[in-house]
Amino acid sequence: MGIKRKKGSTKKTESKKKRLVKNKQTKTRKSAKTVSSVKKTPESKKDTTTISRNEAIKSIKAELLKQKKILLGEAGATINNMPAAILYPDLGDQAGMEIERNFLLRLRGREQRLLKKIDEALERIEKGTFGLCEVCGKEIDIRRLIARPVTTMCIECKIEQEEEERLREM
Hints:
74% of the residues lie in helices and 0% in strands. The chain is built from five helices and no strands. The chain has helices spanning 11-37, 42-81, 91-127, 142-147, 155-169.
């Protein structure tokens, strides 16, 4: 009873309005802090991007190591749990078993190639060449590296390569 509302307004619309105002105030404060804390010199901008790129590469390395550990664990479990070649009296059952076995082996082959790419990426990180395009030598965008850490080409070179492959297939 103690809440007075304007005519035609509900609790939901009032709470939405309050949240919008609160969010707007928070964003304004955050942007003010960001602007005041960073100097507008080109040198400081380069330093912050270098630092964030180096931090991103460190987190990518940690993620690659984690992914490698998971893949190696799964590969070991698959090999240990791989069913032996069992002869079923029914040919349909036998064919189904062979299809399943071939599928598992094909998956493990893909994972093996991914492990090789992960090892190569970790090696490039250690050498300091991680994030450089193998074709043109330019830095690969950090967003691309985060999305696909095992990549060796910048997006422009990769698009060009895929277009060439499409032309060859025709």
